[in-house]
Write a structure and sequence with these properties.
The complex is a heterotetramer.
Chain A lengths: L1 H32 L9 H11 L2 E4 L4 H20 L15 H21 L3 H32 L4 H9 L7 H17 L18 H4 L5 H26 L11 H28 L8 H23 L2
Chain C lengths: L2 H22 L4 H25 L4 H28 L11 H20 L7 H23 L3 H21 L5 H28 L5 H4 L8
Helix pairs in contact in C: 1-2, 1-5, 2-3, 2-6, 3-6, 3-7, 4-5, 5-6, 6-7
Chain D lengths: L7 H18 L3 H24 L13 H31 L4 H23 L3 H19 L5 H36 L8 H7 L5 H19 L7 H8 L2 H27 L7 H19 L6 H22 L1 H33 L10 H4 L1 H14 L6 H16 L1 H26 L15 H15 L3 H14 L1
Helix pairs in contact in D: 1-2, 1-4, 2-3, 2-4, 3-4, 3-10, 3-13, 4-5, 5-6, 5-10, 6-8, 6-9, 8-10, 9-10, 9-12, 10-12, 10-13, 11-12, 11-17, 12-13, 13-15, 13-16, 13-18, 13-19, 15-17, 15-18, 16-17, 16-18
Classes of the chains: A mainly alpha, B mainly alpha, C mainly alpha, D mainly alpha.
């Protein structure tokens, strides 16, 4: 019991600490890929600390909602991230929320972010919010359909069970799984506002989505939101990792050795995924905002196809 | 005659008495307070009775009055289902009356609202209690009639008159469909008592016909696409608290009618009946919420979102039917419980949202979101509870909307065990539709709240606005509390629903309140589980932790300044995103097939001074496909036949003569 | 009954049908009225004959009524009206004579077919009479339908009544009630028609219903 | 001891006849109106006494049985309320000078003669006598329709008269044919016309003759029932006559003709080889229903609108009786009673409306619930009732007709429901215009009393909620008679 709580706590802290590092790593790799030195790995930590120290400049029109939102976003994302098995499955609190809940938690984070974007009443906030909800309205169903197909396969929406099942030998190579993987990756890219859907580095009004929503934020609020976005990326990577690369995962009740192995495996997976992401982002160009629906529509179709295939194949 | 039923029947009687009294005294100053006070008390009593029956013994009690259809009598019956819906109805009634105590004072035409409001409540109560076809239809149509009168309350407005007209015509269309359905169930002998119908099982064809007729009848009242056309017109036309009743409660009464006939009277369904309900439900959900997204009138937006929720409920009812038909009672129980749970939740947050809209309306006199904005500064409490309503209806944890939708998804995940291929293919597709509609709902209510309450004021009306009276606030706060409670303690609701599901689908969901930490586990913990309470706790704890740490260890300095906006000079409020522009990206994506929408931009030549114009053309497809042809046909027929009014006497004689000759010929050729 | 009486009754009834046909192809008002007078006379004869062979003396009254009112009073009255209204040289058939005659023939056959389905047990005389009466009624209606002019419609209507009288008298031992009611209805009919003609005379410049037709219920 | 024995039937007949004679002689119109009311009231009481006094045995001319008591009581009741309404209405007409005192004498005398005719038609046991009575009633109404002497009124009366007298002729021929059919079996003389005798022996009548007879009777009396396509006189007669007469026409005269049709339907039903009356009546009923439903849409005159709705409802009733069977017949009877009460109430309301607004044009009447709440809401209730919405009486009958029909012959229920919906749409459309919106037209208050109107509506409402057991039993018995 105690040990499990400890593991749970360790997990919560570790995701919190790892998230900036992951971002730093991605940025570093991207910089190297274009032959630049790039900022140091721990630059994101520095940024966060700096932002926290700064005072907050609040627009005259900003309401209480605007000031509460950053903490809500952070909390929702953190809770979600804490429930995804990273280096061990079967965490103490994993049963409080299954995959659907995790998706929904991210959804509520987005909900409030969009509202905050509209609160100050500048045109950019609205622009960002409306684009964000458009993207979400396609990404969320796709994500849910992916959840469906996983759940149908593993017979559960409980992440630990799913992970355990995917680790077990009985799951062979399946077309539908491939489809779900591709769809999941596409959704992850969209959700984390990465190229080609959005560009986290841009401040060009016409193209930005996520940045437009948080345009009015500054100081500690901005820090919270940034941290939340870092966590989100980590969350999706660990999700892909624990579902599609479930090796080295073990129950939280297992001994410290197993856990150590799990942690090591986890770090490797993260590194691999981060490198892949960086390579992908440097390889492709950002697409026009109204190409995004097609991109996500494809994801949606893939996910649906995967689910249908499963339904049909299970009956054979 | 059972005492509980007797008590429950006294309620509507008292309500009707109130209505009569109100008709007499409606012009008195104190009338408003008297009437709403009376309805509040009566509904509260009814609520208590029904709730205790639901919580206590799940037994059935019935009573027969020597009224209505002579040789059948007016039969009434109280069982789990009707008790549950009585709770829904009277909870709505109680809180709406509470709201009305304050809101009713702003009413310009009290004598056109007060008499019909209690009658409307009485009608809904009686529908739920009725136990024979005649009293059912009588109460059903009485309910429509009362609500029609309420829609016509502000009759000087042409739009309202049109709304009322379309509403009542559709309502009587629905009644006719129900009438035919009951005709089939009753058989030539005319056994109109539900007890008799229960025992007599119609053949497959008749069962199919009944289901279709019920979809037409109950569906037209509940607002299934394409029978929804009246709903977004009529619901907003009524005074806001009545809109809340119509949207939040009356649609549920329609669902009750559907359940009563299809699950209770019809006996064992065929699986393809479920398919029809599923598909219609899914389509309704998606189209309803898309329409809502395009709306810029706050109350119409809410009305359309009602259509979406009705779609969700029907989809999960269809799922329950399919499971029931395939002898999977546990799965059926899951789907059925999900549907009922959503019924309850929707009655909470939709009433809450309409109350909020009413508050905005009475504070600013505006329903058009394009003229609102920044109300969060003027109406702090209203905006807070409205926000809770938005979060709940957007199915976000830890609020109640999510809990029920989560159950629906869990039910969908049971579908691979279904034997039929049709269902195998359709169910996940419908699941996708529901997921889509859920996401769109979130978008829709970001828009609803963001445009109305956030940003800067778009009209002078907003500056003058100030917080509404305490009665209204109390009603809204109570509902918000319910939304949260039902969200974090779903197990409580699910367990109390077991007495409803057991007799209808022959199984109940496992007991939830026994679960550790009050989490809900529909099938097995290894499979799926959700704990609203803990999620709520985690979020609050971690949020406050973060806030605490930062304010403790980092800066908490704060400076007010003008908005940054990428360095643009402070623009006029008109430069903000409007409701229409907010919906534009989604319209680009879905409008093509949902509304056959087309955008035309005429850009003046460079240097020309006239403004560029963006014209958006959208079609209400359902209206154009189903309604316009009918009206056109009627128009044509009347035009043609009308000539018969203008014949000469000789021609009329010719008609008589020809008719005589024809009849004689028939006779001559008679074998 | 012996053949002769039967034949005479038959002859009279048949000639009534014939005269109805004559009415069909009259297109002058005066001629039409004269033919109707003839119709009435023959009717009177046949009724009288019926009275004789059934020795039902009350039928003589009916015969007298027919003779006096229909053969004399009404034709004269109609002549008056026509002269006063100055519509005596109207050509006023709505449908061509030819088609009308064809229709008439069709109607007579129809009534024959109908009545011959009646079981032969029924009194043959009654059967034949009924067949003729039915055809006279239908022909009367046909006149009303094919004429535009109020007067000729009245005439058509009365020839229809003649058919009724024929039927009634043909029915053996039909109580007096009926004859009286027939006469009474004709009387009422005539009075009211007269009243109306006069009113109409005051209102419009002719009895021609065409003038009435400018108003048809609701003005468009 | 041989004391005075009260003969209700005689009273029903002689009170109106006597009153007519008196009224014809009375100069003062106020008195005449009063006498008219009193006479009608006495007739009503006499009719009610039929329940308590023992019925006379069916004679050669008169008959009282369960079937016609329904009609008699309804007839005298509506006759009474209408006379009350007419008193105030006529007074107003006199003020506005549309009618003169001599007109009124004539009017009231005619009113009583008409009541006499209708009562006679109901109690007559002799098909010849019934025919005479129906025609008497018809001709009196013809004269009353023409009473305003206006262009339109004379038009309507003329049309009514011509079509009516053709109907008369057809009905008479039908009657003769029935006699011819009966004569070989029953023997010559009056007996062959006594209904109660005929119905016993009908099985042996010549079916072919009976069939032809029924066709003529159906058309002859059907003209007065106002079944399409024989209806042409009805809308104009309703629209142009004095409103009390419109009320009586819709509420009563149509029932008289319907009653005649029913009697002969029974006769025909008793003879197996003859054509079934059911299909004919069902067809005519549906035709009238759907035709009238469509005609409702383009009406501009408020009285003509409700006249067409009478055609529609007669269609429903004839349909119900054509369907036959206990449920449908019960529904038919109930519907007939409810329609008489509701429609006359509506015409009372329309009369007041036309007088305060000074027009019958629908387009010129708006927002009645605002300008004249009492009147406006009465109209709303009336139209809601006539459109077949609960909790009013017609809903019950429509409920029974539709559901039982659908259970027995689904394909007949579809057109029925179709017609009902079309009619509903039209009525509600007009109602929305009349009762709601910005008030338009005269604002003067109504000085006449609403009592007749609201008493009818109250009855209709009560019947919609609760039918007393004896009434039900009795209706069921009658429905049984109707087979």
């Amino acid at each position: 019991m105690i040990s499990q709580l400890a593991v749970q706590g360790a997990q919560m802290l570790s995701v919190l600490l790892l998230a900036p590092l992951l971002i730093g790593f991605v940025r570093k790799v991207k910089a190297r890929l274009v032959r630049r030195q790039g900022p140091s790995l721990i630059q994101p930590y520095r940024d966060l600390v700096r932002l926290m120290r700064k005072e907050v400049v609040l627009a005259d029109n900003a309401s209480w909602l605007f000031r509460v939102t950053p903490y809500l976003i952070f909390a929702a994302t953190w809770v979600a991230a804490a429930l995804v098995p990273t280096f061990a499955t079967g965490l103490e609190f994993s049963w409080t929320a299954d995959l659907i809940v995790i998706v929904a938690l991210l959804g509520s984070a987005r909900f409030f972010q969009a509202l905050a974007g509209m609160d100050v009443g500048t045109s950019f906030g609205g622009l960002g919010a409306s684009r964000e909800v458009m993207i979400a309205s396609l990404a969320e169903p796709a994500m849910l359909l992916i959840v469906f197909s996983l759940a149908l396969l593993a017979g559960a929406t409980q992440l630990s069970t799913v992970a355990a099942f995917m680790g077990s030998p009985e799951v062979g190579l399946r077309v539908s799984l491939g489809m779900s993987l591709i769809a999941l990756v596409m959704v992850a890219i969209a959700e984390n506002a990465r190229i080609p859907v959005d560009n986290p580095a841009t401040h060009l009004e016409l193209t930005m989505v996520h940045e437009a929503m948080i345009l009015e934020y500054s100081g500690r609020h901005l820090a919270m939101i940034e941290l939340a976005t870092f966590l989100k990326l980590l969350l999706y990577m660990s999700l892909i990792a624990c579902v599609f690369l479930p090796w080295g995962l073990d129950g939280a009740s297992a001994g410290p050795k197993a856990l150590a192995i799990g942690a090591a495996a986890y770090l490797c997976k993260l590194a691999v995924l981060a490198i892949l992401l960086a390579v992908f982002e440097t390889a492709v160009a950002k697409m026009r905002v109204f190409r995004v629906p097609d991109f996500l529509g494809a994801a949606l179709m893939l996910a649906l196809l995967g689910t249908l295939l499963l339904f049909v194949s299970r009956s054979l | 005659m059972n005492s509980t039923v007797a008590l429950l029947l006294c309620g509507p009687a008292a309500l009707l008495a109130t209505a009569v009294m109100a008709a007499g005294a409606s012009r008195l100053a104190a009338a408003t307070r008297l009437v709403y006070g009376a309805t509040l008390a009566i509904s509260a009593v009814l609520l208590a009775t029904a709730a205790s029956h639901l919580a206590g013994n799940p037994g059935e009690a019935s009573a027969t009055l020597p009224l209505g259809l002579p040789w059948t009598g007016a039969r009434f019956r109280l069982d789990g289902l009707s008790a549950f819906f009585l709770v829904v109805v009277n909870l709505g009634g109680t809180i709406t009356s509470l709201y009305g105590l304050g809101y009713g004072r702003h009413e310009s035409q009290p004598h056109r609202v007060l008499p019909f409001y209690p009658a409307f409540l009485a009608g809904m109560n009686l529908v739920v209690l009725a136990n024979d076809a005649f009293s059912f239809l009588l109460s059903w149509e009485f309910m429509s009639l009362a609500s029609w009168a309420l829609v016509m309350a502000h009759h000087r407005d042409e739009a309202n008159r049109r709304a009322g007209y379309i509403y009542l015509v559709m309502a009587s269309f629905g009644t006719m469909a129900l009438l035919l359905a009951f005709g089939l169930l009753a058989g030539p002998a005319g056994t109109y008592a539900f007890d008799a119908m229960r025992t007599a099982h119609p053949d497959r064809f008749a069962a199919g016909a009944v289901l279709v007729l019920m979809l037409l009848g109950a569906g037209s009242k509940a607002g299934l696409v394409p029978l929804h056309a009246w709903l977004p017109l009529a619901h907003p036309a009524a005074p806001s608290h009545v809109s809340a009743l119509m949207s939040g409660i009356m649609t549920k009464v329609a669902i009750y009618g559907f359940i009563r006939v299809v699950f209770d009277l019809l006996g064992e369904p065929a699986w393809w009946l479920g398919v029809a309900v599923l598909l219609i439900g899914g389509v309704t959900a998606v189209l309803g919420i898309l329409h809502a997204l395009m709306e810029k009138d706050l109350k119409r937006l809410l009305a359309y979102s009602t259509i979406e929720n009705i779609g969700v409920i029907f989809a999960s009812l269809g799922l329950a039917l399919a499971f029931k038909a395939n002898g999977m009672p546990s799965a059926a129980a899951l789907a059925f419980t999900a549907a009922l749970f959503h019924v309850l939740n929707h009655s909470f947050f939709k009433s809450l949202l309409f109350f909020g809209a009413g508050a905005v309306l009475s504070a600013t006199g505006e329903r058009d979101m394009e003229k609102l904005g920044g109300l969060i500064h003027r109406l702090p409490v209203t905006s807070f509870v409205f926000l809770i309503g938005c979060v709940s209806i957007s199915a976000l944890p830890p609020f109640n909307g999510f809990a029920s939708e989560w159950l629906v998804f869990q039910a969908i995940l049971r579908s691979p065990e279904l034997p039929q291929w049709g269902l195998k293919v359709i169910v996940p597709a419908v699941g996708g539709m529901l997921a889509l509609s859920a996401a769109l709902a979130a978008a829709c209510f970001v828009k609803a709240f963001g445009i109305t309450f956030l940003g800067r004021a778009r009209s002078a009306a907003v500056e003058r606005a100030h917080e509404v009276d305490r009665w209204s606030l109390a009603a809204m706060v109570v509902l918000a509390a319910f939304c949260l409670l039902a969200g974090i303690l779903p197990g409580l609701v699910i367990d109390s629903l077991s007495t409803v599901t057991l007799p209808l689908v022959g199984e109940r969901m496992p007991v939830q309140m026994a679960q550790p930490w009050l989490s809900i586990v529909p099938i097995a913990e290894s499979r799926s589980s959700y704990n609203g309470l803990l999620v709520f706790a985690f979020i609050t704890i971690s949020a406050s932790l973060a806030a605490f740490f930062i304010h403790r260890f980092a800066s908490h300095a704060l400076r007010r300044g003008i908005a940054w906006g990428c360095g643009f000079p402070d623009a006029v409020p008109a430069a903000q995103y409007t409701a229409v522009s907010f919906a534009q990206p989604i319209r680009r994506v879905f409008g093509g097939f949902a509304f056959r929408s087309r955008e035309t931009v005429d850009m003046p030549a460079p240097g020309a001074l006239e403004p560029a114009r963006l014209k958006v053309e959208m079609h209400d497809v359902a209206w154009e496909i189903f309604y316009q042809p009918i009206t056109g046909a009627i128009d044509f027929a009347t035009e043609r036949l009308n000539h018969l009014q203008f014949l000469t006497i000789r021609r009329y004689l010719t008609l008589v003569f020809l008719y005589l000759v024809i009849l004689l010929l028939v006779l001559a050729l008679w074998p | 009954m012996n053949g002769l009486t039967f034949d005479i009754a038959h002859l009279l009834a048949g000639s009534l049908v014939l005269i109805s046909f004559m009415m069909l192809y009259q297109d002058r008002l005066f001629a039409l009225i004269n033919v109707f007078a003839l119709h009435a006379v023959v009717l009177a004869l046949s009724v009288a004959w019926q009275a004789y062979i059934q020795d039902a003396h009350h039928l003589y009254i009916t015969a007298a009524i027919a003779l006096v009112f229909k053969a004399i009073v009404i034709p004269v009255g109609l002549h008056r009206i026509i002269q006063r209204l100055g519509i005596h040289r109207d050509i006023e058939t709505a449908v061509g004579i030819g088609p009308t005659m064809l229709a008439g023939i069709g109607l007579v056959t129809l009534s024959m077919v109908l009545m011959l389905r009646v079981t032969p047990e029924a009194d043959p005389l009654a059967r034949e009479d009924l067949a003729f009466a039915l055809s006279i009624i239908l022909l009367g209606l046909l006149v009303m339908v094919t004429r535009r002019n109020a007067v000729s419609q009245v005439v058509g209507f009365m020839s229809l009544e003649n058919g009724l009288v024929l039927a009634a008298t043909g029915a053996k031992g039909m109580p007096l009630v009926v004859e009286i009611s027939v006469a009474f209805s004709i009387l009422i009919a005539f009075i009211v028609i007269g009243v109306f003609l006069f009113r109409i005379r005051e209102r419009f410049d002719s009895v021609d219903i065409g003038a009435l037709d400018d108003y048809r219920g609701e003005r468009r | 001891m041989t004391g005075f024995s009260f003969d209700a039937v005689a009273a029903i007949l002689f009170i109106p006849a006597g009153a007519a004679a008196i009224l014809a002689a009375m100069p003062n119109y106020k008195m005449t109106a009063l006498v008219n009311v009193i006479a009608s009231l006495l007739t009503l009481l006499a009719a009610l006494s039929l329940f308590v006094t023992d019925r006379p045995a069916p004679g050669q001319y008169l008959l009282v049985d369960d079937l016609n008591i329904v009609f008699i009581v309804l007839n005298t009741f509506v006759g009474f309320t209408t006379s009350v309404f007419s008193a105030s209405y006529i007074a107003h007409e006199l003020e506005t000078g549309r009618l003169t005192a001599p007109n009124l004498r004539f009017y009231h005398a005619m009113y009583q003669i008409m009541m006499f005719g209708m009562n006679l038609a109901f109690v007559s046991n002799n098909i010849g006598l019934m025919w005479v009575a129906v025609e008497l009633a018809t001709l009196t109404t013809v004269l009353m329709v023409g009473i305003y002497r206006t262009h339109e009124a004379l038009e309507a009366a003329w049309k009514y008269f011509i079509l009516g007298s053709v109907g008369i002729a057809l009905a008479l021929f039908g009657t003769i044919l029935v006699y011819m059919a009966a004569q070989p079996v029953v023997g010559e003389g009056t007996n062959a016309m006594v209904w109660s005798v005929l119905i016993e022996k009908a099985a042996h009548f010549d079916p072919a003759l009976l069939s032809v007879a029924f066709i003529f009777l159906l058309l002859g009396y059907g003209t007065k029932v106002g079944l399409a396509p024989l209806h042409a006189w009805l809308p104009d007669a309703h629209a142009e006559g004095p409103t009390p007469i419109s009320a009586v026409l819709s509420g009563l005269l149509l029932n008289v003709a319907l009653y005649a049709v029913l009697r002969f339907k029974l006769l025909l039903a008793a003879s197996p080889q003859a054509i079934g009356p059911g299909p004919l009546m069902v067809t005519m009923g549906l035709t009238s229903l759907i035709f009238a439903a469509f005609m409702l849409y383009r009406r501009r005159d408020i009285k003509r609108l409700f006249a067409y709705s009478s055609i529609e409802h007669m269609g429903i009733i004839v349909f119900a009786f054509g369907m036959g069977g206990p449920l449908a017949n019960f529904a038919g009877l109930l519907h007939m009673v409810m329609h008489s009460l509701t429609k006359s109430a509506i015409f009372f309301a329309v009369g007041h409306i036309a007088q305060v607004k000074g027009t019958q044009k629908i387009s010129e009447i708006r927002g009645l619930t605002e300008s004249h709440p009492g009147l406006g809401w009465a109209l709303v209730i009336g139209v809601v009732a006539i459109a077949g919405l609960p909790p009013l009486g017609i809903f019950m009958s429509e409920f029974l007709v539709v559901s039982s029909t659908f259970a027995r012959h689904p394909w007949l229920a579809i057109p029925l429901v179709f017609g009902l919906l079309i009619a509903f749409g039209a009525l509600l459309l007009r109602l929305t215009g009349l009762a709601f919106g910005e008030p338009r037209g005269g604002m003067a208050p109504v000085e006449a009393s609403y009592v007749p109107m609201y008493s009818h509506l109250a009855l209709v409402f009560a019947a919609g909620i609760y039918l007393p057991a004896p009434l039900v039993a009795w209706f069921q018995h009658v429905a049984g008679i109707l087979g």
